[in-house]
Amino acid sequence: MSAYWKKNLRTLLILLFVWFIVSFGFGIILVEPLNQFHFGGYPLGFWFAQQGSIYSFVLLIFIYVIRMNFLDREFDVNED
Amino acid sequence: MDILTWTYLLVGLSFILYIGIAIWTRAGSTQEFYVAGGGVSPLANGMATAADWMSAASFISMAGLISFSGYDGSVYLMGWTGGYVLLALLLAPYLRKFGKFTVPDFVGDRYYSNKARVVAVICALFISFTYVAGQMRGVGIVFSRYLEIPIEWGVVIGMCIVFFYAVLGGMKGITYTQVAQFCVLIFAYMVPAIFISMQLTGNPVPQLGLGGEVADGTPLLAKLDGVLADLGFAEYTSGRKGMGDMLAITLALMVGTAGLPHVIVRFFTVPRVKDARLSAGYALFFIAILYTTAPAVAAFGIYNAINSTSEKNISELPNWVQNWQKTNLIAVDDKNGDGKIQYVADPARNELTIDKDIMVLAGPEIANLPNWVVGLIAAGAMAAALSTAAGLLLVISTSVSRDLVKTFNPEISEKTELRIARFAAAGAVIFAGYFGVNPPGFVAEVVAFAFGLAAASFFPVIILGIFSTRINKEGAIAGMVTGLVFTIGYIVYFKFVNPVINTPDHWWFGVSPEGIGSVGMALNFVVCFVVSKFTPAPPQDVQDLIQNIRIPKGAGAAQDH
């Protein structure tokens, strides 16, 4: 079971890294440089802070759901 | 039909719907009362979680808060959504596998200590009471502004409705009414937003309209930056808060969200571990619909408000200004006597004060939308306030009946326990109603408390309880107490004891009281680790429990002791 747990932790670390980058990274720390670019009528950093980070959060959870369902089957810890 | 008739009709219809559902889904056992029998589908649980989470503050105040703070308002948008990623990845599946009814249940069992359980109960009660008083106040305000009856009566009517379905139906009744309330509130939020986006930018999708162009071809956000700069305000798309404080507040709100007991308990209601993961995804999807629309409502609102008032003759102001002047949410004062309104940043010359709540409440009137849309806003705001209040009341009643009474009197029968739970819910409704009618002056200030406390107390001990087998009861108790005392101390000092020096120069590391929960959380983690290192490891049966909750197989329904 420790192999299952290790793969789970790896998945978590990767997803949480993306979680950190899109919100704290692009939305706050790098907001000024990113605002030099535009996305439609949005300055890019502002878009990440008020729109993009939220879309990414939703995607991250669904990726996690798919990945964990796959791992559960692979290690046969799936529920019926 | 006029606005008042539409409002009565729509609010009345929504109440009949909620009561109907409550009667249909009456709870018969403690399991149904606490976790809806554990048989809620992930989609329904997602909607219920979204309604539970989105309170009167999200619905009425958040957009206005962003209107007046621009980019700085992003802390609320990211903070109140990003927490769901933590919840889905780090907490929900494992707590579901653990399979009891409450957060203090987990803390008490994992740290094999009733002391730890009691500390957790106190945190849960404090957070929930703080929150619920604000919801009742929201209910009262909506009643008094739209239905033109006194606030006291508004609160009493709201109390009766919540009492009816929370006390009768427990978690089962609450879950299915919350599904209906989510539909009402999201419809009520989106309809005016879509209309206004069409009017301003020609794009019916508010999320795209915010990045769209106004009639003269300039991007809306660039135009808004220019308008605000001309009046002496900071640009809408750039920030005023320090970067460190932005990071700290966002983190505190995220972690606080993931640690709120009324949100966590929703994940105990689904049948399987994988349903808990999936329903966190659905919940955030439904929340994101409102949270990505709110910044658009915010920018459209402030743009419309300035355009329809600035440099206009006071005698020719639009109707909504007069309508809302009655409620003191907007005030006009022609200081230089030129008969026109100057809306400027300099407080000595500014002649128009606008309350943040106007942006959502009066949004449809500002944009000249039909009367039924105005009525819809009232029904939506009621749905948001009632759904959150009900979720919180359930946490309060569960904490009392289960975590306090049952823990120390394990021999009471299920029937008695259910009766105590209902009495506790009734008591909490009355308590909340009292504070709704006589709000303490510090309701807004204590919201920082609720999130700071959830971040500094629950979050670290739950995470460590799952991801470490070495953290023991000594570490957990010391960590929770340190996090709590530090966070309460900091907030009380700057908000109540010495509010005069509540400025960035005096804050530690430039972190405001709103963001201090992040520091409290870090302290909690450190203390937990250090104390655990010098005290004995948890006993073998607890280590087995931890190994067990890490694996989805064999979750079964939520169990009694």
UniProtKB/TrEMBL annotation, chain B:
Coiled coil: none annotated. It is found in: Membrane. Its main location: membrane. It is a multi-pass membrane protein. Pfam families: SSF. The chain crosses the membrane at residues 6-24, 77-95, 116-133, 153-170, 182-200, 246-268, 280-303, 372-397, 418-436, 442-464, 476-496, 516-535. InterPro entries: Na/Glc_symporter_sf, Na/solute_symporter, Na/solute_symporter_CS, Na/solute_symporter_VC_2705, Sodium:Solute_Symporter. Keywords: Cell membrane, Membrane, Transmembrane, Transmembrane helix, Transport. NCBIfam families: Na_symport_lg (TIGR03648). Belongs to the sodium:solute symporter (SSF) (TC 2.A.21) family. This is Cation acetate symporter. It comes from Algoriphagus jejuensis.
